[in-house]
Amino acid sequence: MFEIDSRLQQDSLILGDFPLCRLLLSKDANYPWFILVPKRAGVSELFDLSQDDQAQLWKETTCLAEALKGEFAADKMNVATLGNVVGQLHMHVIVRRHGDAAWPAPVWGRVPPVEYGPGQVDAIRQRLRALLNDAYEEA
User: Fold this and answer.
1) Is the Cα dihedral 26, 29, 31, 32 positive or negative?
2) Are 34 and 49 in contact, with CB atoms under 8 Å apart?
């Protein structure tokens, strides 16, 4: 049975679902930081997915990254699957801007996380709803 890793649950908010992946938002408001988690049990590596699921993960990642780049005025999109702390396969899709809290370094551990203020998560949900239309279903 598919479940989100406890560390991802602790560090993020569920936004909705793509056909393959659950879409999460990192609780760190320093960056628009999204996480895609394939809804497959026991998967820790990309190659653990079927070929169809691998293609679908890339399709969802590309769709999300492309939409976010324009909407959030990204200078660079960081897309990565690391899994050194959380073994469950998950894809980070992070909007980076010149001058953001960690630029040009990686975002991990660079600065303390900043909590979202009142209404900010709802505003992100509204932006995604308009951007992604029928590509994903909001939670």
Assistant:
1) positive
2) no
Summarised one tens digit per residue, pLDDT across range 69-128 is 999 999 999 999 988 889 999 999 999 999 999 999 999 989 999 999 999 999 999 999
Q: pLDDT tens digits, residue range 46-69?
A: 999 999 999 999 999 999 999 999
Q: For residue 102, what are the CA distances in angstroms to 2, 28, 98, 113, 128?
A: 33, 12, 9, 11, 24
Number of residues assigned to the chain: 139
Whether the Cβ atoms of residue 96 and residue 78 lie closer than 8 Å to each other: yes
- The 8-class DSSP code of residue 6 comes to H
Half-sphere exposure of 61 (CA within 13 A, CB side): 21
DSSP codes joined into one string, 12-50:
EEEEEE-SSEEEEEES-TTS-EEEEEES-TT--SGGGS-
Alpha-carbon dihedral angle through residues 64, 68, 69, 70, given to the nearest 10 degrees: 120
φ, ψ at 94 (rounded to 5°): -120, 130
Give the global pTM: 0.96
